[in-house]
Amino acid sequence: MPPIRNSISASDRSLSQSDQALTTTPPISGKTRTSWVWKYGDELPNQKRPGRWFWRCSLCPNRSTAQKFDDRGTGHIADHPRGSHHISEYSALSSNQSTLRRPTVNPHVLRKLIVEWVIDRCHSFNEIEADSFRKIISYIDITAESKLPKSDKTLRSDILHYFHEAKSIVIEQLSMAR
């Protein structure tokens, strides 16, 4: 289990558990650290650049070879616990916190909605291959990105499938109208 950065003095022992989670040890740099990644790493001074700091992963087994990142932002820092230790902001919640459970993304509905969006807005089929588009989808739901069509050829086949499906419905309705 990662080290907890909470510090509780004798006068604070009466705090509730949720209040205790908010009471953190001030970082050695003096900066306020609010990101979830700081629960899984240590703040170290950068010996080569005075006044700068490192985040060192406290989950890596060997402290001397543990991953280190510059503290200018937590974007790259957060990639390490996610990728190497399978920990995310949501898994970092304490046991007394709850989150809303999102329904799982139905891949058939997602792909049909993407087809409708591409056709409706006259987008190029390769829009779904763009990193920016995939980042939007994974921001909404990280599991949904794996359910996206992989290439423009897959999107093309989805479009043809839905076209033939709609065409058969129209033919059936026209034949009943006679």
Report on the architecture of this protein.
There is one protein chain. The chain has 178 residues and is mainly alpha-helical. It has two domains: 10-85, no CATH class; 107-176, no CATH class. 37% of the residues lie in helices and 7% in strands. It has five helices and three strands. It has helices at residues 17-22, 75-85, 107-120, 131-140, 152-176, and strands at 41-45, 53-57, 68-70. It has a three-stranded antiparallel β-sheet, covered by helices on one side. A hairpin with a 7-residue loop joins β1 (41-45) and β2 (53-57). α3 packs across α5 (152-176). The longest helix is centred in the C-terminal third of the chain and has 25 residues, at 152-176. It is elongated and about 85 Å long.
Strand content: 5-15%
Helix proportion range: 25-40%
Order of strands across the main sheet? 1-2-3
The unreliable regions are 1-26
Mean of pLDDT: 74
Query: Which secondary-structure class do the elements indicate?
Result: mainly alpha
Helix and strand sequence: HEEEHHHH
Radius of gyration: 25 Å
Integer tally of domains: 2
Main β-sheet description? 3 strands, antiparallel
The number of distinct β-strands equals 3
End-to-end separation:
72 Å
General form: elongated
The number of helical segments is: 5
Short summary:
The chain has 178 residues and is mostly helical. 37% of the residues lie in helices and 7% in strands.
Q: What does the secondary structure layout of this molecule look like, with pairings?
A:
Layout: H1 17-22, E1 41-45, E2 53-57, E3 68-70, H2 75-85, H3 107-120, H4 131-140, H5 152-176
Antiparallel strand pairs: 1-2, 2-3
Helix pairs in contact: 3-5
